[in-house]
Amino acid sequence: MQSTTVEKGYQKYAWILIAIIGAFYVFSGLVFLAGVNLDPPLFNRLIGQSLNAFNSANPDKATAMTYLFHGVGLFGLGLGLFTIAISYKPYRRSEKWAWYTVWYLPIILLVAALANYLDGGQSWPGGLIFFIISLAGLLLPYRKFFPRK
User: Fold this and answer.
1) Would you give the DSSP letter of residue 133?
2) Residue 126 CA, distance from chain mean position
3) How many Å apart are CA 123 and CA 114, to the nearest integer?
4) In the chain, which ranges are continuous DSSP H helix?
5) Which of 9, 33, 45, 66 has the fewest Cβ atoms within 10 Å of its own Cβ atom?
6) Residue 47 falls inside a structural domain
7) Mind listing the pLDDT tens digit for each residue in 49-79?
């Protein structure tokens, strides 16, 4: 006899929480690709001046800074697309490898929030919020991925 379990709404739609974080990474990646500084106080604290002042005072180093911003943007864009792709199909289908793989999100988000806080940035509260969202997206469907025998 085959047992059927009714999938609860929070299990069925938890993948959306993971996809939201992926969309956030895509958005922030595009912002970095455009050369926009998302945490001006952090840049000011680390470098000692604003991004615009730095680029004006150091035109030879402005190209290197643009290169770094583009690198971070491409990383964010890639991470976001990867996260959305995993959340949309394999995570929704309760493939265990996808559940294990998505654990990179809370780890990255917590480490980034802590680093931002310790460096004096102001974006760490947002990182903590996304950390909590990622944990919810992982823990809510736990029984869907690992049903009781």
Assistant:
1) H
2) 10
3) 10
4) 9-12, 15-33, 40-47, 51-57, 59-86, 96-101, 104-118, 124-139, 142-145
5) 9
6) yes
7) 888 888 889 888 888 888 988 999 999 999 9
Positive or negative CA dihedral for 131, 132, 135, 141?
Answer: negative
> Is residue 127 a part of any domain in this protein?
yes
Distance CA 89, CA 43 (A): 38
Residues 124-133 have pLDDT tens digits of: 999 999 999 9
Q: Is residue 46 part of a domain?
A: yes
**Domain interval for residue 56:** 10-145
Q: Which pLDDT band holds residue 4 (cuts at 50, 70, 90)?
A: low
Query: Mapping DSSP to helix (H, G, I), strand (E, B) and coil, where does residue 19 land?
Result: helix
Q: What is the largest CA-CA distance in the chain?
A: 75
The total of structural domains in the chain comes to 1
